Structure formats: structure tokens, C-alpha cells
């Protein structure tokens, strides 16, 4: 590692520790890896801390493409720029940055528009390579390639990230809170704030009160929603949800013969103004859509379903109901634009981040984080790389 040699590491490979997924579904292996210098429009980052998102679990289990091994997972993190490649102007050595799976080049038509956060220069895709160069920056100690994950790969003490996937933040933001803005919390808050544009006094229904659903509730609370209905099978989620603004709770396992949509329509006098599917199940998307008010109801799909899942809506229902169904990747946020805003709102004590962090562990215990999430014992587990 850089510190061990006492020499500058710029332009040279760095040896460091990484947690490598060698086989799908098996515990990660902490081993020495080599991290190459950044190429053009890339930066090498020293990761301060990272957190575990359920998407990491999904791809960790995946045996078929886009699952691939060996791979360095992790995509919620914060770190410090160690060095930059050619043509990098956005960040410099020493900057504190949040890497994000969704790019924002700032130059294409989509990035310049307020209508989209889907960059067309550096397109989002689930790739084992770097964003612009079809190659990896990781190799094991035998020189064999190790693949990337969601353009971030934060389960490594050092990683290389395209500058389009980096948001610069103020260094005063605590790292064990800053990493949450890299994916889950930003996605949920943004879904309410940007994608749905929840109005003050409106009614919101959230299907699934995991981290993403609770972040949607937090976003709806910040927007001034009048009623925030949480739908979940676990009644304990209601007490947790109250911290983030949930005002009403529906236990989907105790609705008797009524579908959840009917219960919500009766509660709201016709349906919620905004419904959010935060689990990743096609059946719940249908239920959320049915729970929306006719004429102006809006259903936002936030959860990540398994590859190949399909929706089946009646054409007549779509035509006659006048409702909207839309997806929300990264909550509709533009990373470089909106993450600094969320960071400031946290520092101004407006945005709630603290209660999302239920556990903090050292890097060598990273497999414990997987156990905690799989057992339903945590919202977010922060992993310190060199505490």
C-alpha cells in the first residue's frame, strides 16, 4: 500500500486488501489485490467506509449473467481521491467524494435537461468493466482479472471510478453518514422529492419498509406529505417507520379477504396520491398501481426485481384510470447536482440519516454485514475500511 512504501503511488499500481466474491453466494474472501492507476477520465479513490445495500446481496447470489465471479462488490461508499487520470478536471487529489453507480457527465443533452438523470454519454449498465474502457483495474496477486461492480466496487481499500460517477462533497460530512448518500437513502428520498414531486398535504403509500421504503418516507416527510402509509408484513416496521414520518400502517398479512389496494382506497377515500413499490416484486407493482387514485394517482417503481420480471396491465385500465406508472432509477437524482444538496440538508439537521445506521463494523468482519442484512437485523451496516 502507499503508506507502507512511503513513496507517492500516483501513476503506479497499489497493493491493498479487498473482499472478493470468488463464488456466488459464498462468503467474501479478504485478499491482497492490485489496483491499477486511473486511465483517462478516471480517478483512484481510497475508500474510507462503505455500506451494504440489498443490491449487493442480489448480485452476490447471482450465478448467471449479469452475475460474474471473481468480482469486488460494493457500491455505497465515501472516499478520498488518491490520484487522477488524464483529462480530469472535476476532482483533484485530496477531494472527498461519493462514488455513485449512476453517472452524470454534465455535458450530454440528458444531463443538461431537468427532465432526466439518465446520462447518454456514460450510460448506466450492469457491466464487469470500467464505464468508458472495456477493461478492469483490479487483478489478483497472480495477475488474473477481478471484475468491477456497478462502476464502484467499494469493498476494496482502493478502487478506480469514472469521474462521471463521482460527486464531490464537503469534508465536514461524517463518512459513516456520507456513504449512505451513495445509493439507498438518496434513491428513496429522491423518488419522493424528484420523481414523484410529492406535494404538501398529499397522501403517500409505501409498499415495503426496508431501507429504501423508509428513505421514501423520509423524502415524503421533507416534502410535507399529510399522510404516509407504510405497507409491510412486519408490524415492527411501523415503530421504526415513525422515525421517518410514517403516520399509518397496513399489515399486508392481516387484510383478510381484502386486497391491500382496497384497504388503502377505504383509508384514503379513493386511493393514495402517490404509491411507491420498494421491494422489487411485479405483484406489488400491480397492487401499488391499483392503490392509486384515479385521475391523478402516480405509482413509482423503486424496487429492483429479478431479471426478466414482467408487468401485465389492462390496456383499458390504463386508458380509463388516467394514472401514471413510472420507474425511478437513483430516485431521479443527478448525482453531482443533488448529492451535495442532500449533504447540506443533513448538516442543517433537516434530512434524517443517523437512524438508518444500525450497525458499524470493521472491514475484516464484512461477512457479518451480510448476515445482519439477510437476518433482517439491520437497515444499513457501515463498514470501516481502516478504522
UniProtKB/TrEMBL annotation:
Pfam families: ADH_N, ADH_zinc_N. It is an enzyme of class 1 (oxidoreductase). Residues 41-169 form the Alcohol dehydrogenase-like N-terminal domain. One of its GO terms (cellular component) is cytosol. Keywords: Metal-binding, NAD, Oxidoreductase, Zinc. PROSITE patterns: ADH_ZINC (PS00059). Residues 212-332 form the Alcohol dehydrogenase-like C-terminal domain. Its EC number is 1.1.1.1. GO terms for molecular function: alcohol dehydrogenase (NAD+) activity; S-(hydroxymethyl)glutathione dehydrogenase [NAD(P)+] activity; zinc ion binding. It catalyses: a secondary alcohol + NAD(+) = a ketone + NADH + H(+); a primary alcohol + NAD(+) = an aldehyde + NADH + H(+). Its cofactor is Zn(2+). InterPro entries: ADH-like_C, ADH-like_N, ADH_Zn_CS, GroES-like_sf, NAD(P)-bd_dom_sf. GO terms for biological process: formaldehyde catabolic process. Belongs to the zinc-containing alcohol dehydrogenase family. Class-III subfamily. Homodimer. This is alcohol dehydrogenase.
